[in-house]
Records
---
Amino acid sequence: MANLDGYSNDMIWRHLPLRNLTVALFVWLGLTVLFAGVSMRIEYQRASEELAATGQTIHRLISQRAAQHDAHLTSLVALIKAAPELPETAIGEVFQSIVQFYPRITAIDLVRLPVDGVSTAATLISWPGPLKTDLSPIASAIAGQKQGEVRTYLNTAYPGRYLLGKRATAGNPGLAIVVQIDPVLLIEGDERPAWAHVRVSLDGETVLDREANGPSVTDSILTQPHFSKIVDSQSQPFMVDATRPLALSDILSGTRIGGFALACLAVLLLLLFTWQLKANARKLQQTAEEAERRAHLHEHETRLAHALRVNALGELASGIAHELTQPLTALLSQSQAALRLAASEHPDPALLPEALSANVREAKRAGAMLKRMRDYISKREQKLVLADLNQIVVDIAELVRADLEKRQITLILDLATPSPQAVVDPIEMEQVLHNLVRNAADALEHGDMPDRSIRIETILLESGAIIQVSDTGPGIEADTLPRLFEPFYTTKTDGMGLGLALCASLVERIGGHIDGRNQTSGGAIFTVTLPAVEQHLKAAQ
Ligand SMILES: Nc1ncnc2c1ncn2[C@@H]1O[C@H](COP(=O)(O)OP(=O)(O)O)[C@@H](O)[C@H]1O
Ligand SMILES: [Mg+2]
């Protein structure tokens, strides 16, 4: 796979924070559960709607069939208006054809009702003939029916069927037609889907109960979609109840949810991966910006350091000029002596080279001094080298010696052996020490102390090296102490307040630090701590 700014995909996965992975996992679980919930809800809804439609159809069919029964009774009653004059066989044939056409009508009887309530009912004509039903248990009830009324009879005497009775019209009140119906055939085979449980009842008594093939109602953990409606019929006001037993597996599709979970996981991982790529790119950019910012700062510091060195030139120059007087005076007197020697009648040939060698030595001394000064104020980039700290102290002492002598200040060097070493820019380090020495010298100007001295000490530690600059001045004022390294903070009328601030940044940028405090014996002491060489090398890796 492709790399992005040095990060391989493998690394991205490895560096993916555990927190993000956990969040993604929870989001994934949450979405999957939500999806399962929603799809279950939709499936349940669909099953309920299907059941409602089926319930409506069954209800409509039963209503139509009930109306048909009423119509049969009405036409049969009309037929027997003329009875008993009508030939029995003709009536029997009508009965037969109805029963043949409508299998749910299992029998039709023409009954003579008991007139006085005492005599029993007598079946006059019946189809199918040989199996005559004893209608006595319901005969008196039929006799009590209103004119034109059709009534349903559910009676234990007639198991597996219900009876419909209607009295003949006023012309022949003693007769009645009774139709027997098999309720199982109220709904034909394919009219009820296998999953539907249908129950038809009258006043709470079951007329028909057809179980669904599938989970039984009691096994299911779900509430069952349910439909219930009363048949629109005066004679057969059945209650139609339809239920759809649902098992969890009916509405919860494992493959669908599994598919969703997989797709969701893929999308989430993709998002996470993209997010991580972006985060890495952002981090790299931030690092680059930080490096650039530091480089800028570095450059500024270098420029400021140079400016301040040039600024200190005046002070140094007077000292150096004074210092140069010595070799120049020596040069002059040696050269004059040599000239005199050359002009004499018997010049001693051994003396001339001696005088010239002395001149060379003095000229070199003057040259070295000027070179040091030029180096010190030269404009240059930072150059880190493994340097001898004692040597740096000696060099700066050379530069400031004349100035200090002029101000009657003793400079004491207390150098550790062996000399501590550190990775520094020697010129910058000289500048740090120069600033500390100048501050000490400034402090010694004030006050009237008998001992006016500055001490520079190098100390070798296991953890690094220390250079301390202490003085016998009045010490740092209490107000100044917390603000020593603050840029532009000065207590001097002609001060810039940049010396110590610059010292701090020069020392800190090579991994060291600086602090200033008062000594118990009086006077200030500034400590520059530099990291050990190995530490520096480690940090640079
Ligand atoms: N050796 C010292 N003794 C007493 N006070 C000091 C000493 N070194 C520095 N200070 C105080 O710290 C202040 C800040 O010093 P610095 O940053 O070098 O700025 P400047 O020398 O321009 O004032 C000085 O003004 C002075 O009050
Ligand atoms: Mg200063």
---
Amino acid sequence: MASTNAICNLCNQTILELLDFKLLLRYVTGFNQVELITKNEYELSQDELVKLNNLVARRQKGEPLHYILGYKEFYSREFRVTPDTLIPRPETELLVDKVLSIAIPNARLLDLGTGSGCIAVACKLENPNLDVVAVDKYSDTLEVACTNAIQLGAKIKCILSDWFSNVDGLFDVIVSNPPYIAHDDVHLGSLQFEPQHALTDNLDGFSHIKQIIRGSIAHLKKGGYLLFEHGFEQGEMSRKLLHNAGFIDIETIQDYASLDRITLGKYTLRNSNASSI
Ligand SMILES: C[S@@+](CC[C@H](N)C(=O)[O-])C[C@H]1O[C@@H](n2cnc3c(N)ncnc32)[C@H](O)[C@@H]1O
């Protein structure tokens, strides 16, 4: 038997960050943050110790903490995540901020590549007047988004679609965090636990962005906006692609590390040339 207090001290013997270790300990005991401190003489059962050791071993092998816990906080809500979904990143909250700042009342919003549903659900919960459609190509992924929407009380429509293939109608805002990592990017090596189809296009990183811009021309209302997340070296090219497709008021937003992360533009021309990108 070992108390939670003694177990926390044992954390020094693992290579885990203390915060990760405490979250695993809370997961095993079911304690909240306060209980973890106040019940520091609680004796873990043999079962709990075995379970904790297994979780620590998984984490030590590099499995992301949030796949082990099964959730990730995004926009102050807990989203279920599984190995079928990308783990939402803090910088994607900036995309939500921007959508909320430009969406007109009762706007139709399309979230392409919804993953856990984090963008679509957060937007709907923050602005219940939005009419939100969330799309993903993979059914196991879309199921997680739907579950999150139901559990968090967001009434959104989930559609299985290869980008725009099953999407009807026009939208005021189209948002996406597409797979934008190039096949030869060194960062892919450290992201082996997350679904590769959520991360990379297996090409130069721009093929999905180009498809989304082309499709948006046919699915945006006049004066509607397209916003998408991209890699920190993809800002200039993203602006160029939007410009060539007939967008105006093009802007790139930087993330918390002052790196180019989100580009957006307003669509005004109904007859622009999609083949120019
Ligand atoms: C970078 S993840 C973004 C997930 C989520 N929106 C987020 O920000 O955390 C990209 C998402 O696009 C989806 N996806 C990839 N190719 C797609 C396609 N052709 N059509 C629709 N969705 C696609 C993936 O399944 C994945 O969920």
---
Amino acid sequence: MQIQELKLLNFRNYNQLSVQFDKHLNILYGENGSGKTNLIESIYVLALTRSFKQVNDKILIKNGTNLTRIEGIIQNKYKNTYRVVITNEGKKVKIDKTKITKISEYVSKINIVLFNPNDLKMIKDTPSIRRKYLNIAISQLHVDYLKLLGDYNKLLKIRNAYLKKMYLNGNSLQSYLQVLTEKLVDLGMEIYEQRRTYIEQMNGFITDIYEEITGKSNLYVKYISEYDHKSREDLLNLYHKNLKRDLLLGKTNIGIHHDDYVFLLEDFDLKDFGSEGQQKNAVISWKFSEISMLKENKGITPILILDDLLSELDLEKIKNILKFIEEDIQTFITTTEIEKLTSLLINKEYKKYHVVNGVLEEVI
Ligand SMILES: Nc1ncnc2c1ncn2[C@@H]1O[C@H](COP(=O)(O)OP(=O)(O)OP(=O)(O)O)[C@@H](O)[C@H]1O
Ligand SMILES: [Mg+2]
């Protein structure tokens, strides 16, 4: 899968842009604040209709204007034009000439694997941030996953509201709560299974990739869930045991909404124990594993974006990472240190763009 052409209107610090990318490797370089991350963010928004940063859509609209448009020609099996328009009122998406009313029917079409330095949050931050990353990764592989998750979250809200009502009224129907609990467990078990399988498959790749980058083996990802190794019956008993606490607190205290995972290196948690560089290599290994999983499971070659690749990493690791960039994957790399990067790409062909204040100049 490749993005052949990208057109922007009023996106972040870009007024108007029209650019044709290389099929294989594209290097974007420029000073801090010039618009490198903004550009790759626009590609991400084109694919997923929202940013990888936890921001409101409106911030994507260039200051002083009221609409941003991102348009891209994507070459996959077929060639299609994708378009996302964001205004203060909301967003609209189109594939070729067809308006798509359900965003969920749009988002699974363009596959992107992106690394941004912010992704270290995957290790450093809270379980809920980690779940977000996992959810996005799984949804790229399984189209129905987000709907399943949406159904679970809806039901969780209903159950929590009902718990509060029961606590206040005292006489609400226990049998209705039982119905909600059983349905919640059924959906929770499906999500648990998808997450468990995903992380298991991830471990089939990530250890080797991390070793090839760093020379150290024994990195793996451990999934942590209250559903672990429990049958439906076990789970229903567990919810039953927690009923008093659920009622007192007015919320469901057990479930996959508490799931977490950790990156273990030689059995130590990288969160507390790893250096910035080790954490970055682990997250990049995760991203390359995502690519392998997309290829293996769906025959999809996603677009790979490595934002600010060089920072925090020593030359040896960067060289090893660049070895993973295969000919058949369209790749974008951004950097402030162009000489350093190009000195590592001597036998490779690439297009090079200089980013200056929201303008892209191809450098030949
Ligand atoms: N909505 C917006 N309208 C106009 N300018 C914006 C908007 N949002 C962000 N910017 C500008 O975009 C610039 C940041 O761009 P970006 O994050 O792409 O930089 P970068 O080239 O990736 O820099 P670094 O090397 O530091 O990562 C800032 O100068 C910011 O003021
Ligand atoms: Mg940046």
---
Amino acid sequence: MSGPLQSGKSSYIKALDPNALNVEAKGKDEKFYTVGMDLGSIKLNGFDCYLFGTPGLLRFSIMRRIVSTGSDGLIFIFDAAAPEKDDSAIVILNSIRKILPPNIPTVFIANKQDIDDARSPDVIRSQNYLHKDNKIFPTSTQTGLNIKESITYLVNHIYEEYSSLLKTLRVYENDIEGLAQELKKDKMQMRDLLNNLEIKRFVELDRINKTYKVRSGLKYLV
Ligand SMILES: Nc1nc2c(ncn2[C@@H]2O[C@H](COP(=O)(O)OP(=O)(O)O)[C@@H](O)[C@H]2O)c(=O)[nH]1
Ligand SMILES: [Mg+2]
């Protein structure tokens, strides 16, 4: 999850996981700023989803890089009530896009809709030249508006990205070499792929027998 200062990143993660951690420091203005990261987790129909929040201060770009690397998806937040933050939002968005793979599942949120003059998603879209295909949810971490809906949308999108791979993985559970041929990957690439899928808990590896099992119970959410 990324976006400009004081837009609601930490609040969004806290809304989904009340036990979320946040490495923050109090600024001279008495407000709290995330300097490290936020970390929360939720379970959505069989998936353990880890939510990482990046710092919003522009000079913390190195932390944004560390926190973003390896993500499967991106929640990008605009402060709907503070158009003056859009410039730094776009700087952050462009730097995150350079770190993440192209076409990474992304959802935008236009937060603070509980405030009277909050901008609608369409206004934010046109003011920031976001593509018409980009999904933007109007949200409020105060009222809970579209918090669950926006994360569910993203997780489904990520699941779709993985679903054809999962189908292939199920076919080759006892035949890693066959899988390597099917995916046109060499030994090193296969090792990386399977380790990665294990970390993400899509598969359970049996390193002695050189087989794996695709975890059951992963579902599309509605
Ligand atoms: N009115 C309103 N205030 C919000 C909302 N989300 C966050 N805030 C407030 O905005 C400030 C910054 O929130 P925070 O989650 O720390 O933002 P971050 O810097 O992006 O992590 C805090 O005072 C929050 O209470 C929202 O949806 N509506
Ligand atoms: Mg924060």
